[in-house]
Design goal:
- One of its GO terms (cellular component) is cytoskeleton.
- InterPro entries: Band_41_domain, FERM_2, FERM_central, FERM_domain, MyTH4_dom, MyTH4_dom_sf, Unconventional_Myosin_ATPase.
- This is Unconventional myosin-XV.
- Residues 58-211 form the MyTH4 domain.
- The protein has a five-stranded mixed beta sheet with strand order 2-1-5-3-4.
- α4 packs antiparallel against α5 (101-114), α6 packs antiparallel against α7 (136-152) and α14 (333-349) crosses α16.
- β12 and β13 form a beta hairpin.
- The chain has four domains: 25-40 and 48-198, Serine Threonine Protein Phosphatase 5, Tetratricopeptide repeat (Alpha Horseshoe); 217-296, Ubiquitin-like (UB roll) (Roll); 321-409, no CATH class; 416-513, Pleckstrin-homology domain (PH domain)/Phosphotyrosine-binding domain (PTB) (PH-domain like, Roll).
- The two termini are 30 Å apart.
- With 515 residues, the chain is an alpha+beta fold.
- Helices cover 43% and strands 15% of the residues.
- The protein is built from 18 helices and 13 strands.
Length: 515
């Protein structure tokens, strides 16, 4: 069972960048390196400075003890062993038999993952080995490793200002070959500080690409309406950066509107919304079986149709949802009239169809699957025929806009709906539908469309996913809601439990930021 993550907005994003001459790595070494303690006061000031400078510069020989003082002998041993692995990776020592560079990186990253107390030591080792290193290839490998370290693991609060200062100085040195990668490291560290770093270590194929100088991966995002958005993402791209890029291409650059879109990762039949501060590579597995799609999840800001891609994407999503039961529709006479108008608009939305009447087969395609059995094809054909005789045809783009505007007015538009098979509250007839929008969770009767329960999202205290009770059973969600005086609990079983759970988490994140 997994419990709900903290439903709070993103962490404080103020990371201090040191100014002036303070916080150099020599200052850090003087205060914290093991060997600096024994050097102080020897041979006069300039000799002492030179010796400490040596401590933070490249060495051709492996260190015999950790750079930092550790009372734990195991950490000291792991640190010296890591330095040898680092030298082998950078090409300063020959590799062990059958050992390649990817294995060296893995060994270092895995050690960081397992031993948080070694993060500062490993940062200092890499910084030491890229400083005044005469071998350019070795330096490049060292910076590639720093690129990974800064995106995965934070240095301690003590080392942070010194590491930040080191990266700042390296990125401002335009004559060096590594100032671009130093800038990337600065960006990685900022993101890591704000969002917590990537969760999963990279796959070998990603590391091999990085070692060959390919720092970006090709990604196709499937947009509603069949639009494919082709982009390249870096090792530490977060979802909000890609959302910003796509939305700007669609002419939706306003931050409030960008918040209303979400990327989804789909693997087999598992659908998972990606939170805006999550790293895309944590979802993209090596097997290329993950599809990334974009959807509008919240409908708060007014729509605007001056951009063709924006219109096509919104039309594609609204049309798919309408035809495939994602929007709940009632079986009334009024709804039958609406189906006729929406069928005509779909017909006109196709190019070159302004002067023709739709065939019976086309009309079936234009009718929502949930209503096909209850609407007479002949009556629909007669109604659409009459509409076509009495209305002036529209150009495809105008037909799409009118279609969207019609569907927006349907009673259950804007809810993400889920088919639920069992509920703990026996007053709720099942099967039923649960709808989630930016304000509430509603329970709707599948036949009558009557709303039997409303849970405002601000009353949701806690939720968790539930494993199936029996083999072949359905997973579920437990909701704890209500006030402190009157707490309530409800559980529900549905095949899309994880998708619904994560969708609620994403909506809560986004509405928190809005408030």
């Amino acid at each position: 069972q997994s419990s709900v993550p903290s439903l709070t907005s993103e962490p404080n994003s103020t990371m201090l960048v040191p100014a002036g001459d303070r916080y150099t790595m020599m200052d850090f070494a003087t205060a914290y390196f093991r060997d600096a303690q024994s050097m102080q006061g020897l041979k006069g000031m300039s000799a002492e400075k030179k010796s400490i400078a040596d401590l933070v510069q490249h060495t051709k020989v492996p260190i015999q003890e950790s750079l930092l003082r550790y009372s734990d002998s195991e950490l000291n041993e792991l640190a010296t062993k890591n330095f040898k692995t680092l030298m082998r990776f950078m090409g300063d020592q020959s590799k062990l038999k059958n050992q390649n560079q990817v294995e060296c990186i893995y060994e270092i990253l895995q050690l960081c993952k397992e031993k948080e107390s070694l993060h500062d030591e490993i940062y200092c080792q890499v910084i030491k080995q890229v400083t005044h290193n005469p071998n350019q290839e070795s330096v490049l490998h060292g910076w590639l490793l720093l690129n990974l370290l800064t995106g995965y693991f934070l240095p301690s609060n003590i080392l942070m200002p010194y590491a930040t200062k080191f990266l700042q100085l390296a990125s401002s040195d335009t004559s060096s070959t590594h100032h671009d990668i130093a800038k990337t490291c600065q960006s990685n560290l900022r993101k890591n500080f704000m969002y917590g770093g990537r969760r999963h270590l990279p796959f070998p194929v990603e590391l091999e690409a990085l070692l060959k100088g390919r720092g970006a991966r090709r990604l196709v995002v499937l947009m509603p309406g069949g639009v494919e958005y082709l982009t390249r993402i870096k090792t530490f791209t977060v979802a909000k950066e890609l959302l910003q890029e796509i939305c700007e291409q669609m002419g939706a650059g306003d931050q409030e509107e960008i918040q209303e879109f979400v990327l989804f990762a789909i693997r087999n039949k598992t659908v998972r919304p990606i939170r805006s501060e999550e790293y895309l590579h944590d979802y993209l597995l090596e097997d290329k079986l993950v599809t990334v799609t974009l959807r509008r999840l919240i409908w708060r800001t007014p729509l605007h149709f001056e951009n063709k891609i924006y219109t096509d994407v919104h039309y594609g999503q609204v049309l798919w949802d309408y035809l495939n039961g994602r929007i709940l529709l009632n079986r009334s006479k009024e709804m039958e009239m609406q189906v006729g108008v929406l069928a005509m608009l779909q017909h006109w939305a196709k190019s070159e169809q302004q002067d023709s009447a739709p065939s019976g087969e086309e009309l079936k395609e234009y009718t929502p699957k949930t209503l096909q059995s209850s609407i007479s094809p002949q009556a629909l054909q007669n109604q659409v025929g009459m509409l076509l005789r009495t209305r002036q045809p529209l150009q495809p783009v105008d037909a799409k806009i009118q279609f969207i505007e019609h569907v927006l007015k349907l009673p259950f538009f804007g809810y993400n709906t889920y088919f639920v098979e069992r509920v703990s509250d026996d007053t709720i007839p099942v099967p039923c539908f649960f709808g989630v929008n930016k304000e509430e969770i509603i329970v709707v009767d599948g036949t009558t469309q009557v709303v039997s329960c409303v849970i405002p999202l601000k009353e949701l205290q806690k939720m968790r996913t539930l494993r199936p009770v029996s083999e072949g059973g359905l997973p579920g969600i437990e909701l704890n809601y209500g006030s402190a005086d009157s707490p309530k609990t409800m559980w529900l079983e549905l095949s899309q439990a994880k998708e619904m759970y994560h969708t609620i988490v994403v909506i809560l994140d986004k509405t928190e930021l809005h408030h």
